[in-house]
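Reopening this ticket.

The earlier resolution said the output was attached, but the attachment link was broken on my side. Pasting everything inline this time so it's all in one place.
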Amino acid sequence: MNKKDPREHSRVVVDGVTRAPSRAMLRAVGFVDEDFGKPQIGIASTWSQVTPCNMHIDVLAREAAAGADAAGGKSVIFNTITVSDGISMGTPGMRYSLVSREVIADSIETVVEAEGLDGLVAIGGCDKNMPGCMMAVARMDRPAVFVYGGTIRPGRGHTDVISVFEAVGGHAKGTVSDAQLLEVERSAIPGPGSCGGMYTANTMASAIEALGMSLPNSSAQEAVADAKRNDAHRAGAAVCELLSRGIRPSDILCQEAFENAIAVTIALGGSTNAVLHLLAIAAAANIELSLDDFSRVGARVPMLADLRPSGRYMMSELIAIGGIRPLMKTLLDAGLLHGGCLTVSGQTLSEDLAGVAPYPDGQDIIRPLENPIKADSHLVILRGNLAPAGAVAKITGKEGERFEGRARVFGSEQQALDEILAGGIQSGDVIVIRYEGPKGGPGMPEMLSPTSAIMGQGLGDSVALITDGRFSGGSHGFVVGHVAPEAASGGPIAVIEDGDRIVIDARNREISVDLDDKVLDDRMLGWQPEVRDAGCLLRKYARQVSCASQGAVTDDPA
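Inline output:
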């Protein structure tokens, strides 16, 4: 750690006679004389009314600001964008979801660098603004703490947003009535907070805490709880302490910290999106992380949590028995976490976890190590002639570990969804959805609508789905995403045809089509990429974005 001037950046903006115009502008937004001698703490708020995940974050931002001010800093609140996956899912707007991650990272970097802010509290509450915040934090390497906005409470009848999506599939099949669909629509999402299972938001919150970049328990608090407001307040104070001690993200975001994040994600049965986002955060931190690291860590870490989407429980129920800290202590004691990693508390992970009590007797949300749901990772990296650069499967074991079937090929998510809802998918089909990757979408949209429709129609155990797009954290079933190279880049998925035999073998980590190389090569000779109409931002994104196996980032190499 290099202890530096806590005002290293703001000093350039406000000190000296020539900076009088800058000070005059800042006086208009509330600065007084003594504030110019304090470190300036940016509070990056993702508040928005476009989604329940972020509708309360303005309150948390003010708490973080108060915490920074009370600890001797001068807070400056600013906003960045957010979009809602749950609202845009299955529409053209979903193409902007992953793109928003890059916009958020760029916008936070822009404000912090332009205004000369010395430290940062970044508050995220939805799938893409959380990794977007962390990518910015890693890039700028200024003392920072991430605050999770918190999980939503369950809806009536133990429902959540995935209940609504699956009810749509049941309605198409005739097992869910109009009245039942309306009831779940009205009651499943009762207020503020991120989607309630171990979907992408709760997964990333847990992973970021395991990285050491949020305070203890930040990932396991309800959005509307007093504990969450206190977490934000403490984060503001923590950044001031990090500044005084010279602790920066680069002191925390090491290779071992990313291995801790992977291990916790696996133990919790987390989202496939964690692979994409951890690769992107690592790239921003100049840490070499690859798909192989997920396989290596996954070979020794079991899946222990019986959480939605494949399990029974919600995040609120995990919070009620102690959150993720007892799980992390179990993993640490078993040698499955690196305890020497520094965290934003100023202590090591081992020190943070010292004295954490075990889960109460009788709970069955988190299994013991000796009786896991799955003995190794549910996030399975597959390779083969269908995905030479890799693909990511979510195999909890409930789906089986091998699927072989005939390809049903679709050039878009909507085409596939229409066929599923029309009853055109049969047992034994492998649905192939292509041209939905980072370049092809453009934007790599999530496939929650078709996977939920499959489950709602009762086909979850007899149909597989593969795509060069990705999946919501709420997706479950025999699904494989992130197929790389993607169709738009000339990957083999571009020339799969209806009726081709596809084999997905999770045990041997293979995904293949039963065709020899010559047939694939001959098909590629006549291949022309599909190019979709897209707005300016999507066209720019498609030109810059990397392969999914590299995190689908648009950053220029350092």
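Reporter confirms the inline version is readable. The domain at 10-153+191-353 is CATH 3.40.50.2300 (Rossmann fold). The mean pLDDT is 96.
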